[in-house]
Design brief:
The protein is of the alpha/beta class. The chain contains 16 helices and twelve strands. The mean pLDDT is 95.
């Protein structure tokens, strides 16, 4: 199956690409649709951007809303999850002494975002240490709730963590935050197309996710979701044609007839809308190729590879399987120069995979997508065995 699916992708054949989680990889048909939109724009830019764009932007909103379980007026396109979360972080009315509750597993760019906000507002970041290995929902939820105080104004969580590839069971913590009047802000950068999402059921106040990773749309396509009750809290990062002076009034409309939440964020000067317009093509590609079944195969391969490496290293996993991201796993390795291992894996073995130090652990973060194979997992394990001085790995049972 992997060899057959690999033909759909533009990845270099001389590289073993095991890092889909960082930037994704766009299938050929989806990339062709992306270039088609770009060509159409260039053929008549004024018509496309000046007269057609507002209507064109509705289609990806609706397609994504249907996929993610939310209303099409509660979701808006942004360049990436980081930009969407910056809109939220820099809009919320925080004051000196207010607390932003988060975990020790967050993405570094967002750690910097909240640090910037705290410098501007006088708010404070409170970091909860999540006990490892993560083996139960209560273990996670109890740790989060224990960190909540009367000063907690924001709960900021990753749904799937970047450094540790953990799938956090966020729903009970979000419900408790709502009960206490705490804004919940969720970094879902890795979740769309990775797990089945129902944003209305999750119930977060704000949720941002990338489409360019596991949904496999072009780079520059992501979304911000906000519950209708909190949309008026948001200000765009760029004030442009979509903004109106009455945008905070009850029932206000944006400059182009949608809500201020939609118009102020969507219409921010000249940009290339092709990545966002291609989201329906990415969803169609996934449907035509039964990608949830592909994801199940990838999950099994990722877990089997992690199990095999764990047998070689003797190091415990960071979580039980149900709290590991389905197609991504952070695999502990013995103490080493992670930068040198990363460099050598690519230069000597042509393997593209993140290797880094997280807290007191050395980590290899494996992503498995439909274009990967058992043979590539064998290559990775053989390379790590040589570089780390491990006992030679057995070949996988599949081949």
């Amino acid at each position: 199956m992997s060899d057959n699916l690999a033909r759909h992708f533009l990845l270099r054949e001389d590289v073993v690409f095991l890092n889909h989680g960082s930037f994704g990889a766009c299938p050929r048909p989806v990339f062709a649709a992306y270039q088609g939109w770009q060509l159409e724009l260039e053929q008549e830019p004024v018509e496309f951007l000046g007269r057609r764009l507002h209507d064109l932007l509705r289609a990806p909103r609706q397609a994504l809303a249907d996929e993610l379980g939310c209303g099409s007026e509660d979701i808006v396109g942004v360049l990436n999850a980081t930009s969407g979360l910056n809109i939220v972080a820099r809009s919320l009315d925080l004051k000196p002494g207010d607390q932003i509750l988060t975990t020790d597993h967050e993405y570094s760019a967002l750690e910097k975002t909240w640090s910037y906000v705290c410098r501007k507002t006088g708010a404070e970041i409170v970091v909860v240490k999540i006990p490892l290995p993560l083996v139960s929902e209560a273990q996670f939820t109890d740790a989060i709730i224990a960190g909540m105080t009367e000063r907690t104004k924001v709960l900021f969580l990753s749904h799937i963590t970047s450094p540790t590839a953990l799938l956090f069971p966020i729903e009970p913590a979000i419900a408790e935050a709502r009960r206490r009047g705490i804004w919940s802000v969720i970094d879902g950068a890795h979740t769309p197309g990775h797990i089945r999402l129902d944003l209305d059921a999750i119930g977060a106040d704000f949720y941002a996710g990338n489409c360019h990773k596991w949904m496999m749309s072009p780079k520059g396509s992501a979304f911000l979701h906000a519950r209708p009750e909190v949309q008026s809290l948001l200000d765009p990062l760029v004030i442009s044609h979509g903004w109106t002076k009455d945008s905070k009034q009850p029932g206000a409309k944006g400059a182009f007839g949608s809500s201020p939440f939609i118009d102020e964020i969507e219409i921010q000067g000249t940009r290339d809308p092709a990545p966002w317009l291609t989201v329906p093509a990415a969803l169609q590609f996934r449907k035509e190729n039964d990608w949830w079944a592909v994801a199940d195969h990838c999950h099994a391969l990722a877990q089997e590879t992690a199990r095999r490496l764990g047998e070689l290293t003797g190091l415990p996993a960071l979580s039980s399987p149900e709290f590991c991201a389905p197609q991504m796993v952070a695999m502990p390795i013995p103490e080493c120069d992670t930068a040198e291992i990363h460099k050598t894996l690519f230069e000597r073995y042509s393997i593209e995979i993140p290797v880094f130090k997280w807290q007191d652990r050395c980590i290899v973060r494996l992503s498995v997508q439909g274009y990967n194979s058992v043979a590539q997992m064998d290559q990775l394990l053989a390379a790590l065995t040589e570089l780390l001085g491990l006992t030679a790995p057995p070949l996988a049972a599949q081949g």
